[in-house]
Fold each of these.
Amino acid sequence: MQENNKTRAVVLLSGGLDSTTALAWASLKQDWDCYTIAFDYGQRHRIELEASAQVAQVFKSKRHQVIAVDLQAIGGSALTSDIDVPKDMQDAAGIPATYVPARNLIFLSLAAAFAETVGANKLVIGANIVDYSGYPDCRPDFLTAFTRAADLGTKVGVQAGGFEVVAPLIKLSKAEIIQLGLSLGVDYAMTRSCYDPDAAGQPCGHCDSCHFRLQGFAEIKQQDPLLSS
Amino acid sequence: MQENNKTRAVVLLSGGLDSTTALAWASLKQDWDCYTIAFDYGQRHRIELEASAQVAQVFKSKRHQVIAVDLQAIGGSALTSDIDVPKDMQDAAGIPATYVPARNLIFLSLAAAFAETVGANKLVIGANIVDYSGYPDCRPDFLTAFTRAADLGTKVGVQAGGFEVVAPLIKLSKAEIIQLGLSLGVDYAMTRSCYDPDAAGQPCGHCDSCHFRLQGFAEIKQQDPLLSS
């Protein structure tokens, strides 16, 4: 057993389809020791925090850390404020209403701090530009610029070789992401994607996130186990 | 009155000597409409949050926003964890124990989110490299890299001309910062700098922050009004 020599990674884990697949990839395909981080940021879809904890356990996260950060106080997003979550893809042009101001900038910054305390250099994020091209903070250019800022502004950057932001899903379609996850044994019944679930946590079936998830499963002619569970 | 045409800035306001001076500069010398942001991050020196709210009021902050972000859960710093705050400058080499992992990266990210919702492009920070050269996240290179990441990862960057991070104190000595503040009428009795105050909020007089503050006032032959108040 030389577990201590294994590469360590912090995985941003919302408990959704993408981040769960990214964790499976990092843990099973890369064989990295994974530390998971989730954010309690005042999101409507808080059920994802339960999903996140369950997924972390299944993929043997070395430590699952939930960080409370009050983005609701800042507002400006359909995911944290009184703005309605758009349904049925009515307005797909530009930056979606579900964009949360500077979310990945904030989440990656907190992940970098966590990585520093657990001795990890890799930050794994399920960012994707195929389905959600409207989110600026999912683009490769942003991830590169973030890495540079983190390297210049942290102890890991100055003293420990710097960070690597790894985005294994960045150019995959939703169908390809699901195929990757299924090939790694991911049980998607555990994951939660809906931006606007009902009180029982059931997906609305109409927000962008539900739309892409349904389309992804349909493309590969699979049933979403979340809907049949 | 054309107040709505005034430049808007978000000022990171800890309630300490530096950030208070930066706010005075932005508000009185630049005549910007200032929105202030403070962070409740599990710091030992929570009295700074009260100072911050008072300073915000004195300098007519348009909105003072306290954001809760649980950095104590991440740990790794004398300011949030069980590590002792170093006294009497025993170990000034390298990165100090009072370094908080990725703090300015996290705080600037949250400030960028706040700026986005209030329509501000400028982020004002009291970062300084003269006294605290050990903190990587106070260096100009970091601030430049952060600006680039924020521009690529936010709506302001993509649609509204981008951010400017302004660090008016970056190359000033503590004495010069105090002189600037006094010339703008800052009452330093309001501000709190100590990393490790007692239960009544009184400064310890021995941590790095107290040390530089005392030295700064001594250099310009002034009495720190906090100590005589």
Amino acid sequence: MTLEYYSNLMLPAIEQELRKAVAWVQNYDSGDLHEMLIYHMGWSDDGHAQESKGKRIRPLMVTLCTTAAGGDWHTALPAAASVELVHNFSLIHDDIEDNSPLRRGRLTVWKKWNIPLAINAGDAMFTLAHLTTLQLAESTSPGIALQAAQLLHETCLHLTSGQHLDISYEDQDEIALEAYWPMVQGKTAALVAACTELGALAAGSDLNARQAYHDFGHSLGLAFQALDDLLGIWGDSALTGKSTDSDLIARKKSLPILYGLSLQGNFASRWRKGPVGQDELPEVAATLENEGARAYTQNIADRYTKQALEALEATRPESQAGQALQELANQLLKRHA
Amino acid sequence: MTLEYYSNLMLPAIEQELRKAVAWVQNYDSGDLHEMLIYHMGWSDDGHAQESKGKRIRPLMVTLCTTAAGGDWHTALPAAASVELVHNFSLIHDDIEDNSPLRRGRLTVWKKWNIPLAINAGDAMFTLAHLTTLQLAESTSPGIALQAAQLLHETCLHLTSGQHLDISYEDQDEIALEAYWPMVQGKTAALVAACTELGALAAGSDLNARQAYHDFGHSLGLAFQALDDLLGIWGDSALTGKSTDSDLIARKKSLPILYGLSLQGNFASRWRKGPVGQDELPEVAATLENEGARAYTQNIADRYTKQALEALEATRPESQAGQALQELANQLLKRHA
């Protein structure tokens, strides 16, 4: 397992870089703001912190891509930390926006403190991400640091655009199938593409190589989201778990649901009649599957997976790290499968 | 009026730079996100936009300081726009955090749309600020752009620290007089100090000059806040206006109130008995004044004003722009007086 080797090597250094970044807030008199950030990151000594830490997949993609692109992954640590901080900033704000009381089995930040403090803690986390990016000026070069900052800010703008669409769609009964893509490109794919491109950038790659790494992350992000949407209806916990686990009950604008609506068939008729109950779940899921929505979604996921792996190959990665990236991609795309 | 001359010269260019920055979000498919930002900035064609635009004092301080430091103010426009965007991002989030329905006579963003969309719009505005800062690489140099980004991020971290304290204090019946300063240094002074220092930085000033400009802004910010707190109790609208205009009724942890509490006298006894009613306002304000809180606050405001003007003089500003900065400082500190 090449991935296991690299994970054991890189993850402790990534965690250390993250702790260093978050500690920055202690330069100011800020009450328990640092404690809020520590809690969210899963470093609190509350017995549940370890499980709630997150897998740090995004920063690992950064350092793996730097190695694959022929660079020294240590120099990319500020970029790795910064994408993870952006991800976590967005989780803090998303949890407020979605009114989610729990994340990975613990109270969300806004639920444990309150909404005003949580909005502000997210802003602080966002700022720490940007401060950390600039550390690339020391580990790589000022020119690379500036390009990385530009890339990360553009990514964040894309992220907020996707998030805006996602929130807006909630109030709309129906949206067109095409409206799905700008939302997930912003919400999911943009940050994964930034991870892989930042990894290449830290290695000093040229524009062509950066583009290939970007494409790898972008396609991987889209494949991941399509599969996530598929599992949100036909995954074990969606079909048999709590009702909140099924996108059919949550009325999420996911890919199979929008596809089913676009067909104007039995699924669409049932959907328009109102909320789907827990007892109807297997039947409605079967209707949607019979109309081809599962195959359609799987097909799209497969297509993007293929594109991702082709883009990775096009980067001509340094062999061991390239293999680890392939393993990581497969792991992401085959979970629950 | 030198200030008037410079305002007429610089404000249209600042506004244009701001519009260019905000338009960036249109590079992504983002529904009405752009419209939300336009609305907040006061550019909507809704009949009330002009009054709600804000005075753009902070960006004007940037370009004035660049001129005063011997630079070409046009090169500082990205820095000027970015501080105004940071200020406006913080207003969007503050209005949610403070549950404020109105800002300058119009509905706040969260009230006009909703809280989830407004949190996200604030995040977008914050991101636009950072993207704009990086434009300094073109107008000045990559080195200055990196230093400016570092300065602005540190400022934002200070800002969120101060905001955290401010929100935290709301739930506490009483806080010590000393606890006032870390809050206002973060909430108010940090961004003003960033404006003046960024102005000098864009002019290519050395570290000593940057520090002097920083001190000017820092002291000015503190003087402004102390006076604002004074007017929050003894200003015309606080004494005679709607009850929400008085910090005594809003139970704000302002400087004169914390001073009065620290004295443990008649004001403190009255305060601890519970909310102050509209009819008691003149009496409670008089008690506080008799105990010396008004003179104490005025004295602190005067001291910081003096420090600010001394710091400005220490920069040996280019004569005309220096005069305009002095006018601006006096205008800020003498409003309502």
Amino acid sequence: MCSILTKVRPIHRAVALSLRLGASTECSRYAATQSRRLSRGVNSVVDPLLINARFYCSRTAKTEGLLFRQFTYLHCKFVQNTICHLFEVESCTYTYLLADTKTKEAIIIDPVLETIDRDLNLVMELGLKLTLAVNTHCHADHITSSGLMKKRVSGLKSAISKFSGASADILLSEGDKIAFGKHYLTVRETPGHTDGCITFVSADESMVFTGDSLLIRGCGRTDFQQGCPKCLYDSVHDKIFTLPDNCLIYPAHDYLGQTVSTVGEERKFNPRLTKSKDEFVEIMNNLNLPKPFKIDVSVSANLVCGLHGL
Amino acid sequence: MCSILTKVRPIHRAVALSLRLGASTECSRYAATQSRRLSRGVNSVVDPLLINARFYCSRTAKTEGLLFRQFTYLHCKFVQNTICHLFEVESCTYTYLLADTKTKEAIIIDPVLETIDRDLNLVMELGLKLTLAVNTHCHADHITSSGLMKKRVSGLKSAISKFSGASADILLSEGDKIAFGKHYLTVRETPGHTDGCITFVSADESMVFTGDSLLIRGCGRTDFQQGCPKCLYDSVHDKIFTLPDNCLIYPAHDYLGQTVSTVGEERKFNPRLTKSKDEFVEIMNNLNLPKPFKIDVSVSANLVCGLHGL
């Protein structure tokens, strides 16, 4: 495996060296607020269905030879309601597996400690060579499995933003490319939820993995872990809303059981990000959210790739 | 809207009249067992990744102009474990929305009472014309929203298998086609979990909605609601495993946070359906599962399209 970590500026630069996994380069949250439905008063006139009817949401990616899987990990809370359910889901954390179907090189995004067996079982079944476990940021609501995964998968590297403050084999920054076989994801720095948040864009811009920077009809909170509402607003508008309207958005969480959205939809319907920057800052500064249940144990563990260390 | 309900035999007959929604045609479960991982001893030699690398799992459907969304609804249970989680997910129920991006005609599969607002909000946002709410069977673990949805969406029809014993506007049987715009799903009868289970296959056979007949690495239990392990074995082998290996499987449930599988994977890795029929029957007759929590209220409600009646 070659070992090239290349910075690419500007973001859209077409020809770029790739970050090949196995890099020897020396390098080294608090999760989302509830994304609640749903304001009507939006200022975009785009019709998400008509932008590009050929591709819109009929598939998860239009790239041939790309394997893609979305997994869920769920946190529940006690809620007594009227329809005899005693527990409801508080958060759904998504993990993504991507692979080249020919070379079988694979990467995993935001893996969760509790679901490591599920994820590695599928990797084994499909005969994949998992080369990188990457986190979109230093999560505060769950513990990453990247450290334990490194102990169980020979040659596996971990990666996270160089601004996250966390340790990892590879520290990522704007324009870096994460390659697996003939495919790659490009890193876009999207600070605001935390100062180390990054977003991954597929080569054909048909998929974007937004972490907590942009959720379906919501976004990550900005009231700790170096959160900054102005930064988040700029990140989303400059780095995500500039993608094609039919680009599929795969976030780190959802609270309503939604699995995917599109840039066009969020540009039109996101109740926070369709506001002016001043209105957005006002909203974010007045959410008055409780401290996350697991923040103390999660953040300290995630700073070193999880409970099992780097 | 035209009103034609046509039976098509054999299943693969290419030219067929369609069941158009809004049909005036007079027509007259217990949900899945845990699908646990994961036996290695399988008799297929197919490599799910190499079957058709062009399409395998890189998208949820290869049909142009088809909008597709997968939603989750989650049941939790109390589980004291060692990593400070007090509640775990007992079941995840999937709902599917499909639409023609041009005509905006849409159908919904297995909608859940508790998530009706989420589902109808998205229908409204995307400007869809929801014409049919269809259930894969008479569910025993949750209550359908099809009855309430009919009250809230003008012109909406409900549909279910004619063998389900349940009431609906349209009673479906083998070979019927459910059309929305230029797209359609074909009905395959797959009894065994219940005698009224049906499976929906997309026109290009790139997607199959299997209800509880086939789950990811599992299948629905067969110990009540006219369950029959022999029938289920034949249903899966004759009606689902005969689809292309790269056909994406969207089940009614998952218990491990998995969102999709493929026919090739299940043919190779399903720990039950890779066995002989006799072994399968032995397994299914000895699951010794507890009675579902909500079976009494769910089944009686679902026989009439949910709590709100037909």
